[in-house]
Amino acid sequence: MTYCCGILVREGLVMMADTRTNAGLDNISTFRKLHIFERREEMVLLLASAGNLSVSQGVIHLLDEGVPDPTDETISTRLVDASSMSVAAHLVGAATRRARAQAAEGMEQSGVNFDVSFLLGGQIGGGAMRLFMIYSAGNAIECTIDTPYFQIGEHKYGKPILDRAISFDMDLYDALKIGLISMDSTMRSNLSVGLPLDFALLRRDALKLELSIRVDASDAYFRDLREQWSKALKAAHTAIPRPPYGGLQDR
Amino acid sequence: MTYCCGILVREGLVMMADTRTNAGLDNISTFRKLHIFERREEMVLLLASAGNLSVSQGVIHLLDEGVPDPTDETISTRLVDASSMSVAAHLVGAATRRARAQAAEGMEQSGVNFDVSFLLGGQIGGGAMRLFMIYSAGNAIECTIDTPYFQIGEHKYGKPILDRAISFDMDLYDALKIGLISMDSTMRSNLSVGLPLDFALLRRDALKLELSIRVDASDAYFRDLREQWSKALKAAHTAIPRPPYGGLQDR
Protein backbone atom coordinates (compact mmCIF):
# COMPACT_ATOMS: atom_id res chain seq x y z
CA MET A 1 0.00 0.00 0.00
CA THR A 2 0.95 3.63 -0.07
CA TYR A 3 -0.05 6.94 1.38
CA CYS A 4 0.57 10.20 -0.45
CA CYS A 5 -0.91 13.61 0.11
CA GLY A 6 -0.60 16.96 -1.57
CA ILE A 7 -1.63 20.23 0.07
CA LEU A 8 -1.96 23.45 -1.92
CA VAL A 9 -2.24 26.60 0.19
CA ARG A 10 -1.91 30.27 -0.69
CA GLU A 11 1.84 30.28 0.03
CA GLY A 12 2.63 27.13 -1.89
CA LEU A 13 2.58 23.37 -2.18
CA VAL A 14 3.54 20.46 0.08
CA MET A 15 3.69 16.93 -1.31
CA MET A 16 4.62 13.80 0.60
CA ALA A 17 4.70 10.05 0.13
CA ASP A 18 5.78 7.05 2.15
CA THR A 19 8.16 4.56 0.52
CA ARG A 20 6.76 1.17 1.46
CA THR A 21 5.66 -1.25 -1.21
CA ASN A 22 4.38 -4.72 -0.60
CA ALA A 23 3.49 -7.74 -2.63
CA GLY A 24 1.81 -9.58 0.20
CA LEU A 25 2.74 -9.02 3.82
CA ASP A 26 5.90 -11.11 3.45
CA ASN A 27 7.41 -9.09 0.63
CA ILE A 28 8.01 -5.52 1.71
CA SER A 29 10.39 -3.13 -0.01
CA THR A 30 11.33 0.52 -0.12
CA PHE A 31 10.69 2.51 -3.32
CA ARG A 32 10.58 6.24 -3.79
CA LYS A 33 7.06 7.33 -4.77
CA LEU A 34 7.62 11.10 -4.80
CA HIS A 35 9.21 12.09 -8.08
CA ILE A 36 10.62 15.48 -9.01
CA PHE A 37 10.70 16.90 -12.53
CA GLU A 38 12.33 20.29 -12.77
CA ARG A 39 13.98 22.87 -14.94
CA ARG A 40 15.48 25.10 -12.30
CA GLU A 41 13.97 28.61 -12.15
CA GLU A 42 11.59 27.54 -14.95
CA MET A 43 9.41 24.72 -13.65
CA VAL A 44 9.05 22.35 -10.74
CA LEU A 45 6.66 19.39 -10.91
CA LEU A 46 6.11 16.93 -8.09
CA LEU A 47 4.51 13.60 -8.92
CA ALA A 48 3.41 11.11 -6.25
CA SER A 49 2.28 7.63 -7.24
CA ALA A 50 0.11 4.92 -5.70
CA GLY A 51 -0.99 1.52 -6.94
CA ASN A 52 0.65 -1.19 -9.00
CA LEU A 53 4.40 -0.49 -8.92
CA SER A 54 5.26 -1.92 -12.33
CA VAL A 55 2.58 0.26 -13.96
CA SER A 56 3.52 3.41 -12.03
CA GLN A 57 7.19 2.89 -12.90
CA GLY A 58 6.12 2.44 -16.51
CA VAL A 59 4.34 5.79 -16.32
CA ILE A 60 7.42 7.49 -14.85
CA HIS A 61 9.60 6.06 -17.63
CA LEU A 62 7.21 7.37 -20.28
CA LEU A 63 7.17 10.79 -18.64
CA ASP A 64 10.98 10.78 -18.51
CA GLU A 65 11.48 9.61 -22.07
CA GLY A 66 8.45 11.09 -23.79
CA VAL A 67 4.79 10.12 -24.07
CA PRO A 68 3.92 9.32 -27.72
CA ASP A 69 1.07 11.36 -29.16
CA PRO A 70 -1.87 8.95 -29.72
CA THR A 71 -2.62 10.51 -33.12
CA ASP A 72 0.98 10.57 -34.32
CA GLU A 73 3.34 8.12 -32.62
CA THR A 74 6.40 9.82 -34.12
CA ILE A 75 5.79 12.80 -31.83
CA SER A 76 6.38 12.39 -28.12
CA THR A 77 6.51 14.82 -25.23
CA ARG A 78 8.48 14.58 -22.00
CA LEU A 79 6.93 15.86 -18.79
CA VAL A 80 9.65 18.48 -18.36
CA ASP A 81 8.67 19.88 -21.77
CA ALA A 82 5.05 20.48 -20.72
CA SER A 83 4.09 24.05 -21.50
CA SER A 84 1.51 24.34 -18.72
CA MET A 85 0.16 22.43 -15.72
CA SER A 86 -2.91 21.37 -17.74
CA VAL A 87 -0.67 19.91 -20.42
CA ALA A 88 1.38 18.19 -17.70
CA ALA A 89 -1.74 16.62 -16.16
CA HIS A 90 -2.86 15.53 -19.61
CA LEU A 91 0.56 13.91 -20.23
CA VAL A 92 0.39 11.98 -16.96
CA GLY A 93 -3.09 10.78 -17.94
CA ALA A 94 -1.92 9.73 -21.41
CA ALA A 95 1.12 7.94 -19.96
CA THR A 96 -1.16 6.16 -17.48
CA ARG A 97 -3.50 4.90 -20.20
CA ARG A 98 -0.55 3.75 -22.27
CA ALA A 99 1.25 1.96 -19.42
CA ARG A 100 -1.97 0.26 -18.33
CA ALA A 101 -2.77 -0.81 -21.88
CA GLN A 102 0.70 -2.36 -22.18
CA ALA A 103 0.25 -4.20 -18.89
CA ALA A 104 -3.38 -5.20 -19.36
CA GLU A 105 -3.14 -8.53 -21.13
CA GLY A 106 -0.77 -10.25 -18.73
CA MET A 107 -2.19 -8.60 -15.63
CA GLU A 108 -5.78 -9.47 -16.45
CA GLN A 109 -4.85 -13.10 -17.10
CA SER A 110 -3.16 -13.24 -13.69
CA GLY A 111 -6.05 -11.46 -11.98
CA VAL A 112 -3.65 -8.78 -10.70
CA ASN A 113 -5.02 -5.32 -9.90
CA PHE A 114 -3.08 -2.87 -12.03
CA ASP A 115 -4.79 0.36 -11.03
CA VAL A 116 -2.60 3.36 -10.36
CA SER A 117 -3.23 6.94 -9.32
CA PHE A 118 -1.11 10.06 -9.13
CA LEU A 119 -0.90 13.45 -7.54
CA LEU A 120 0.72 16.06 -9.74
CA GLY A 121 1.50 19.46 -8.30
CA GLY A 122 3.74 22.32 -9.29
CA GLN A 123 4.19 25.42 -11.32
CA ILE A 124 5.48 26.13 -14.81
CA GLY A 125 6.89 29.54 -15.72
CA GLY A 126 4.42 32.34 -15.18
CA GLY A 127 1.46 29.97 -14.93
CA ALA A 128 -0.54 29.28 -11.80
CA MET A 129 0.55 26.76 -9.20
CA ARG A 130 -1.84 23.82 -9.48
CA LEU A 131 -2.46 20.39 -7.96
CA PHE A 132 -4.15 17.52 -9.80
CA MET A 133 -5.20 13.99 -8.96
CA ILE A 134 -5.01 11.62 -11.93
CA TYR A 135 -7.04 8.40 -11.86
CA SER A 136 -6.31 5.01 -13.38
CA ALA A 137 -8.45 5.87 -16.39
CA GLY A 138 -6.20 8.86 -17.08
CA ASN A 139 -8.77 11.51 -16.18
CA ALA A 140 -7.81 14.23 -13.72
CA ILE A 141 -9.45 16.49 -11.16
CA GLU A 142 -7.96 19.70 -9.83
CA CYS A 143 -7.68 20.91 -6.27
CA THR A 144 -9.56 24.10 -5.35
CA ILE A 145 -9.48 26.39 -2.33
CA ASP A 146 -12.58 24.76 -0.78
CA THR A 147 -10.71 21.50 -0.27
CA PRO A 148 -7.06 22.38 -0.73
CA TYR A 149 -5.63 18.87 -0.52
CA PHE A 150 -5.70 15.50 -2.26
CA GLN A 151 -4.78 12.05 -1.04
CA ILE A 152 -4.08 8.79 -2.85
CA GLY A 153 -3.52 5.28 -1.53
CA GLU A 154 -4.53 4.44 2.03
CA HIS A 155 -6.26 7.75 2.66
CA LYS A 156 -8.83 7.14 5.38
CA TYR A 157 -6.74 7.06 8.56
CA GLY A 158 -5.04 10.32 7.75
CA LYS A 159 -8.09 12.19 6.43
CA PRO A 160 -9.74 13.39 9.67
CA ILE A 161 -6.83 15.65 10.64
CA LEU A 162 -6.69 17.13 7.13
CA ASP A 163 -10.46 17.71 7.16
CA ARG A 164 -10.20 19.53 10.46
CA ALA A 165 -6.95 21.44 10.16
CA ILE A 166 -6.16 22.35 6.56
CA SER A 167 -7.26 25.66 5.14
CA PHE A 168 -6.09 27.53 2.07
CA ASP A 169 -4.87 30.49 4.11
CA MET A 170 -2.69 28.60 6.55
CA ASP A 171 1.09 28.93 6.82
CA LEU A 172 2.97 26.65 4.42
CA TYR A 173 5.06 25.09 7.20
CA ASP A 174 1.91 24.49 9.24
CA ALA A 175 0.50 22.67 6.22
CA LEU A 176 3.67 20.54 6.19
CA LYS A 177 3.20 19.83 9.91
CA ILE A 178 -0.43 18.75 9.42
CA GLY A 179 0.64 16.55 6.50
CA LEU A 180 3.22 14.86 8.73
CA ILE A 181 0.58 14.26 11.44
CA SER A 182 -1.69 12.76 8.78
CA MET A 183 1.19 10.52 7.67
CA ASP A 184 1.82 9.47 11.28
CA SER A 185 -1.85 8.52 11.80
CA THR A 186 -1.76 6.39 8.65
CA MET A 187 1.48 4.63 9.54
CA ARG A 188 0.19 3.77 13.00
CA SER A 189 -2.94 2.07 11.69
CA ASN A 190 -1.70 0.46 8.47
CA LEU A 191 1.48 -1.60 8.45
CA SER A 192 1.72 -1.33 4.68
CA VAL A 193 2.51 2.39 4.95
CA GLY A 194 5.94 2.97 6.46
CA LEU A 195 9.06 5.05 6.88
CA PRO A 196 11.09 6.53 5.38
CA LEU A 197 8.87 9.19 3.89
CA ASP A 198 9.74 11.82 1.32
CA PHE A 199 8.37 15.30 1.23
CA ALA A 200 8.94 18.39 -0.83
CA LEU A 201 7.90 21.98 -0.33
CA LEU A 202 7.52 24.46 -3.15
CA ARG A 203 6.79 28.11 -2.45
CA ARG A 204 4.45 29.82 -4.91
CA ASP A 205 6.32 31.57 -7.74
CA ALA A 206 9.74 30.41 -6.47
CA LEU A 207 10.16 27.93 -9.35
CA LYS A 208 12.70 25.99 -7.31
CA LEU A 209 12.20 23.58 -4.44
CA GLU A 210 12.53 25.05 -0.96
CA LEU A 211 12.77 21.61 0.65
CA SER A 212 13.15 18.04 -0.56
CA ILE A 213 13.72 15.82 2.42
CA ARG A 214 13.73 12.14 3.29
CA VAL A 215 12.50 11.49 6.84
CA ASP A 216 13.54 8.23 8.46
CA ALA A 217 13.16 6.83 11.96
CA SER A 218 16.16 8.85 13.18
CA ASP A 219 14.62 12.22 12.22
CA ALA A 220 14.42 14.15 15.50
CA TYR A 221 11.58 16.49 14.49
CA PHE A 222 9.33 13.72 13.19
CA ARG A 223 10.03 11.57 16.26
CA ASP A 224 9.10 14.51 18.51
CA LEU A 225 6.00 15.27 16.45
CA ARG A 226 4.78 11.66 16.82
CA GLU A 227 5.42 11.69 20.55
CA GLN A 228 3.86 15.11 21.16
CA TRP A 229 0.83 14.27 19.05
CA SER A 230 0.32 11.03 20.99
CA LYS A 231 0.60 12.84 24.31
CA ALA A 232 -1.66 15.67 23.18
CA LEU A 233 -4.34 13.25 21.97
CA LYS A 234 -4.21 11.47 25.29
CA ALA A 235 -4.49 14.77 27.17
CA ALA A 236 -7.35 15.76 24.85
CA HIS A 237 -9.55 12.76 25.51
CA THR A 238 -8.61 12.66 29.18
CA ALA A 239 -9.77 16.27 29.55
CA ILE A 240 -13.26 15.51 28.19
CA PRO A 241 -15.59 14.67 31.10
CA ARG A 242 -16.90 11.14 31.43
CA PRO A 243 -20.35 10.57 29.96
CA PRO A 244 -23.09 11.61 32.40
CA TYR A 245 -25.72 9.24 31.02
CA GLY A 246 -27.87 7.43 33.52
CA GLY A 247 -27.76 10.28 36.01
CA LEU A 248 -24.18 9.36 36.93
CA GLN A 249 -22.99 12.98 36.69
CA ASP A 250 -20.72 12.52 39.71
CA ARG A 251 -18.62 9.81 38.11
CA MET B 1 -22.78 2.39 5.21
CA THR B 2 -22.57 1.83 8.93
CA TYR B 3 -20.21 2.16 11.80
CA CYS B 4 -20.43 -0.07 14.87
CA CYS B 5 -17.92 -0.76 17.57
CA GLY B 6 -17.81 -2.97 20.61
CA ILE B 7 -15.35 -2.48 23.47
CA LEU B 8 -14.82 -5.14 26.14
CA VAL B 9 -12.89 -3.97 29.19
CA ARG B 10 -12.40 -5.48 32.63
CA GLU B 11 -15.48 -3.70 34.03
CA GLY B 12 -17.79 -4.55 31.18
CA LEU B 13 -18.96 -4.00 27.63
CA VAL B 14 -19.86 -0.98 25.50
CA MET B 15 -21.53 -1.44 22.12
CA MET B 16 -22.59 1.30 19.75
CA ALA B 17 -23.94 1.73 16.23
CA ASP B 18 -25.07 4.59 14.06
CA THR B 19 -28.48 4.33 12.39
CA ARG B 20 -27.91 5.53 8.85
CA THR B 21 -28.61 3.26 5.91
CA ASN B 22 -28.26 4.19 2.31
CA ALA B 23 -29.09 2.71 -1.04
CA GLY B 24 -27.15 5.23 -3.03
CA LEU B 25 -26.52 8.75 -1.80
CA ASP B 26 -30.06 9.79 -2.65
CA ASN B 27 -31.81 7.19 -0.55
CA ILE B 28 -30.90 7.61 3.09
CA SER B 29 -32.92 6.21 5.97
CA THR B 30 -32.71 5.57 9.68
CA PHE B 31 -32.70 2.00 10.96
CA ARG B 32 -31.67 0.68 14.34
CA LYS B 33 -28.59 -1.51 14.01
CA LEU B 34 -27.97 -2.21 17.70
CA HIS B 35 -30.26 -5.00 18.83
CA ILE B 36 -30.84 -6.18 22.38
CA PHE B 37 -31.75 -9.73 23.35
CA GLU B 38 -32.29 -10.23 27.07
CA ARG B 39 -33.77 -12.31 29.81
CA ARG B 40 -33.48 -9.90 32.69
CA GLU B 41 -31.07 -11.00 35.43
CA GLU B 42 -30.26 -14.08 33.31
CA MET B 43 -28.69 -12.89 30.05
CA VAL B 44 -28.04 -9.78 28.02
CA LEU B 45 -26.85 -10.01 24.41
CA LEU B 46 -26.07 -7.01 22.24
CA LEU B 47 -25.96 -7.52 18.48
CA ALA B 48 -24.76 -4.82 16.08
CA SER B 49 -25.12 -5.31 12.33
CA ALA B 50 -23.45 -3.94 9.21
CA GLY B 51 -23.91 -4.66 5.55
CA ASN B 52 -26.90 -5.48 3.37
CA LEU B 53 -29.99 -4.44 5.34
CA SER B 54 -32.38 -7.05 3.95
CA VAL B 55 -29.95 -9.82 4.85
CA SER B 56 -29.16 -8.45 8.33
CA GLN B 57 -32.89 -8.05 9.03
CA GLY B 58 -33.35 -11.63 7.85
CA VAL B 59 -30.71 -12.72 10.35
CA ILE B 60 -32.43 -10.80 13.18
CA HIS B 61 -35.77 -12.42 12.32
CA LEU B 62 -34.22 -15.88 12.39
CA LEU B 63 -32.58 -15.13 15.76
CA ASP B 64 -35.92 -13.87 17.10
CA GLU B 65 -37.98 -16.76 15.80
CA GLY B 66 -35.48 -19.60 15.91
CA VAL B 67 -32.60 -20.73 13.71
CA PRO B 68 -33.36 -24.19 12.26
CA ASP B 69 -30.73 -26.84 13.02
CA PRO B 70 -29.02 -27.69 9.69
CA THR B 71 -29.12 -31.43 10.51
CA ASP B 72 -32.73 -31.49 11.70
CA GLU B 73 -34.94 -28.67 10.41
CA THR B 74 -37.70 -29.54 12.90
CA ILE B 75 -35.48 -28.23 15.71
CA SER B 76 -34.81 -24.52 15.93
CA THR B 77 -33.17 -22.33 18.56
CA ARG B 78 -33.84 -18.66 19.36
CA LEU B 79 -30.93 -16.45 20.36
CA VAL B 80 -32.43 -15.82 23.81
CA ASP B 81 -32.36 -19.58 24.40
CA ALA B 82 -28.60 -19.84 23.78
CA SER B 83 -26.97 -21.63 26.69
CA SER B 84 -23.60 -19.88 26.35
CA MET B 85 -21.90 -17.08 24.44
CA SER B 86 -20.21 -19.64 22.15
CA VAL B 87 -23.59 -21.13 21.29
CA ALA B 88 -24.94 -17.62 20.71
CA ALA B 89 -22.08 -16.76 18.31
CA HIS B 90 -22.64 -20.08 16.54
CA LEU B 91 -26.37 -19.27 16.16
CA VAL B 92 -25.62 -15.85 14.66
CA GLY B 93 -23.23 -17.55 12.22
CA ALA B 94 -25.81 -20.18 11.28
CA ALA B 95 -28.52 -17.54 10.82
CA THR B 96 -26.12 -15.50 8.65
CA ARG B 97 -25.39 -18.46 6.37
CA ARG B 98 -29.09 -19.25 6.10
CA ALA B 99 -30.20 -15.67 5.37
CA ARG B 100 -27.46 -15.25 2.78
CA ALA B 101 -28.33 -18.56 1.11
CA GLN B 102 -31.97 -17.43 0.86
CA ALA B 103 -30.92 -14.10 -0.64
CA ALA B 104 -28.16 -15.40 -2.89
CA GLU B 105 -29.99 -16.25 -6.11
CA GLY B 106 -31.73 -12.93 -6.62
CA MET B 107 -28.89 -10.84 -5.24
CA GLU B 108 -26.25 -12.48 -7.40
CA GLN B 109 -28.37 -12.00 -10.51
CA SER B 110 -28.70 -8.32 -9.69
CA GLY B 111 -25.01 -7.97 -8.86
CA VAL B 112 -25.91 -6.66 -5.39
CA ASN B 113 -23.41 -7.11 -2.57
CA PHE B 114 -25.17 -9.04 0.16
CA ASP B 115 -22.35 -9.34 2.67
CA VAL B 116 -23.16 -8.72 6.31
CA SER B 117 -21.18 -8.74 9.52
CA PHE B 118 -22.07 -8.61 13.19
CA LEU B 119 -20.68 -7.81 16.59
CA LEU B 120 -22.15 -9.96 19.35
CA GLY B 121 -21.34 -9.14 22.96
CA GLY B 122 -22.83 -10.02 26.28
CA GLN B 123 -23.03 -12.46 29.11
CA ILE B 124 -25.24 -15.47 29.84
CA GLY B 125 -25.79 -16.64 33.42
CA GLY B 126 -22.58 -17.50 35.21
CA GLY B 127 -20.57 -17.63 31.97
CA ALA B 128 -17.87 -15.18 30.97
CA MET B 129 -18.67 -11.86 29.30
CA ARG B 130 -17.50 -12.18 25.69
CA LEU B 131 -17.42 -10.20 22.46
CA PHE B 132 -17.42 -11.77 18.99
CA MET B 133 -17.23 -10.54 15.43
CA ILE B 134 -19.16 -12.71 12.96
CA TYR B 135 -18.27 -12.54 9.28
CA SER B 136 -20.45 -12.99 6.22
CA ALA B 137 -19.37 -16.63 5.95
CA GLY B 138 -20.75 -17.25 9.43
CA ASN B 139 -17.36 -17.75 11.09
CA ALA B 140 -16.53 -15.80 14.23
CA ILE B 141 -13.50 -14.42 16.03
CA GLU B 142 -13.41 -13.44 19.68
CA CYS B 143 -12.04 -10.30 21.29
CA THR B 144 -9.13 -10.73 23.70
CA ILE B 145 -7.44 -8.41 26.19
CA ASP B 146 -4.62 -7.55 23.75
CA THR B 147 -7.06 -5.79 21.42
CA PRO B 148 -10.20 -5.32 23.46
CA TYR B 149 -12.41 -3.92 20.72
CA PHE B 150 -13.96 -4.80 17.38
CA GLN B 151 -15.35 -2.62 14.62
CA ILE B 152 -17.59 -3.38 11.64
CA GLY B 153 -18.65 -1.21 8.72
CA GLU B 154 -16.73 1.98 7.97
CA HIS B 155 -14.00 1.32 10.52
CA LYS B 156 -10.93 3.22 9.35
CA TYR B 157 -11.66 6.82 10.33
CA GLY B 158 -12.51 5.82 13.90
CA LYS B 159 -9.72 3.30 14.41
CA PRO B 160 -6.74 5.54 15.29
CA ILE B 161 -8.32 6.81 18.52
CA LEU B 162 -9.26 3.27 19.57
CA ASP B 163 -5.74 2.04 18.79
CA ARG B 164 -4.26 4.78 20.91
CA ALA B 165 -6.68 5.04 23.80
CA ILE B 166 -8.41 1.74 24.55
CA SER B 167 -6.95 -0.65 27.09
CA PHE B 168 -8.54 -3.55 28.91
CA ASP B 169 -8.02 -1.98 32.32
CA MET B 170 -9.64 1.37 31.58
CA ASP B 171 -12.79 2.68 33.25
CA LEU B 172 -15.99 1.53 31.54
CA TYR B 173 -17.30 5.08 31.11
CA ASP B 174 -13.95 6.17 29.67
CA ALA B 175 -14.34 3.34 27.15
CA LEU B 176 -17.77 4.73 26.29
CA LYS B 177 -16.25 8.18 25.87
CA ILE B 178 -13.52 6.90 23.53
CA GLY B 179 -16.16 5.00 21.54
CA LEU B 180 -18.14 8.22 21.12
CA ILE B 181 -15.02 10.07 19.92
CA SER B 182 -14.39 7.25 17.44
CA MET B 183 -18.01 7.58 16.23
CA ASP B 184 -17.59 11.36 15.89
CA SER B 185 -14.43 10.96 13.76
CA THR B 186 -16.25 8.53 11.49
CA MET B 187 -19.33 10.72 11.09
CA ARG B 188 -17.20 13.73 10.20
CA SER B 189 -15.41 11.94 7.38
CA ASN B 190 -18.13 9.68 5.97
CA LEU B 191 -21.58 11.05 5.18
CA SER B 192 -23.05 7.55 5.11
CA VAL B 193 -22.53 7.24 8.87
CA GLY B 194 -24.88 9.53 10.77
CA LEU B 195 -26.87 10.41 13.86
CA PRO B 196 -28.78 9.30 15.78
CA LEU B 197 -26.55 6.67 17.31
CA ASP B 198 -27.46 3.95 19.77
CA PHE B 199 -25.25 2.70 22.52
CA ALA B 200 -25.58 0.26 25.38
CA LEU B 201 -23.42 -0.37 28.40
CA LEU B 202 -23.36 -3.67 30.28
CA ARG B 203 -21.38 -4.04 33.48
CA ARG B 204 -19.68 -7.41 33.98
CA ASP B 205 -21.84 -9.86 35.98
CA ALA B 206 -24.76 -7.39 36.22
CA LEU B 207 -26.89 -9.39 33.76
CA LYS B 208 -28.97 -6.31 33.09
CA LEU B 209 -28.24 -3.25 30.97
CA GLU B 210 -26.86 -0.25 32.83
CA LEU B 211 -27.51 2.07 29.88
CA SER B 212 -29.33 1.85 26.58
CA ILE B 213 -29.42 5.28 25.01
CA ARG B 214 -30.19 6.91 21.69
CA VAL B 215 -28.04 9.97 21.04
CA ASP B 216 -29.35 12.51 18.55
CA ALA B 217 -28.20 15.96 17.52
CA SER B 218 -29.83 17.53 20.58
CA ASP B 219 -27.80 15.43 23.06
CA ALA B 220 -25.90 17.99 25.16
CA TYR B 221 -23.05 15.68 26.22
CA PHE B 222 -22.33 14.42 22.71
CA ARG B 223 -22.50 17.96 21.32
CA ASP B 224 -19.99 19.11 23.95
CA LEU B 225 -17.76 16.10 23.32
CA ARG B 226 -17.61 16.89 19.60
CA GLU B 227 -16.83 20.54 20.25
CA GLN B 228 -14.24 19.88 22.94
CA TRP B 229 -12.55 17.19 20.85
CA SER B 230 -12.35 19.56 17.89
CA LYS B 231 -10.89 22.33 20.03
CA ALA B 232 -8.44 19.97 21.73
CA LEU B 233 -7.21 18.60 18.39
CA LYS B 234 -6.70 22.13 17.16
CA ALA B 235 -4.80 23.03 20.33
CA ALA B 236 -2.78 19.82 19.99
CA HIS B 237 -1.50 20.47 16.50
CA THR B 238 -1.06 24.17 17.14
CA ALA B 239 1.18 23.35 20.11
CA ILE B 240 3.55 21.25 18.02
CA PRO B 241 6.39 23.43 16.72
CA ARG B 242 6.62 24.13 13.01
CA PRO B 243 8.99 21.88 11.08
CA PRO B 244 12.59 23.12 11.34
CA TYR B 245 13.72 21.60 8.05
CA GLY B 246 15.95 23.69 5.88
CA GLY B 247 17.57 25.41 8.83
CA LEU B 248 14.48 27.56 9.38
CA GLN B 249 14.40 26.84 13.12
CA ASP B 250 13.36 30.41 13.88
CA ARG B 251 10.12 30.22 11.94
Task: Give the CA-based shape of chain A.
Answer: globular
According to CATH, the fold-level topology of chain A is Glutamine Phosphoribosylpyrophosphate, subunit 1, domain 1
**Approximately what portion of the residues of chain A adopt beta-strand conformation?**
25-35%
Radius of gyration of chain A: 20 Å
Instruction: Quickly name the level 1 CATH class of chain A.
Output: Alpha Beta
Q: Helix content range of the residues of chain A, please?
A: 25-40%
Oligomer: homodimer
Q: Write the CATH homologous superfamily of chain A.
A: Aminohydrolase, N-terminal nucleophile (Ntn) domain
Explained architecture:
The model of chain A has no long low-confidence stretch (mean pLDDT 93). The first copy, chain A, starts with a strand and ends in a 12-residue tail after the last helix. In chain A, strand 13 (197-203) and strand 14 (211-215) form a beta hairpin. Helix content of chain A is 33%, strand content 31%. Chain A has 251 residues and is of the alpha+beta class. Chain A is globular. The first copy, chain A, has helices at 53-65, 85-110, 159-165, 172-189, 220-239; strands at residues 3-9, 12-18, 20-22, 28-30, 34-39, 43-51, 67-69, 72-77, 116-124, 130-134, 140-142, 149-153, 197-203, 211-215. In chain A, the strands form 4 sheets. A 5-stranded antiparallel beta sheet of chain A has the order 12-1-2-13-14, covered by helices on one side. A 5-stranded antiparallel beta sheet of chain A has the order 5-6-9-10-11. The first copy, chain A, has a two-stranded antiparallel sheet with strand order 3-4. Chain A is built from 5 helices and 14 strands. The first copy, chain A, has one domain: Glutamine Phosphoribosylpyrophosphate, subunit 1, domain 1. In chain A, helix 1 packs antiparallel against helix 2. The A-B interface holds A 156-157, 159-161, 163-165, 171, 173-174, 176-178, 180-181, 185, 188-189, 201, 210-211, 213, 221, 224-225, 228-230, 232-237, 239-246, 248, 251 and B 156-157, 159-161, 163-165, 171, 173-174, 176-178, 180-181, 185, 188-189, 201, 210-211, 213, 221, 224-225, 228-230, 232-237, 239-246, 248, 251. Chains A, B: It comes from Methylocystis bryophila. Chains A, B: This is Peptidase.
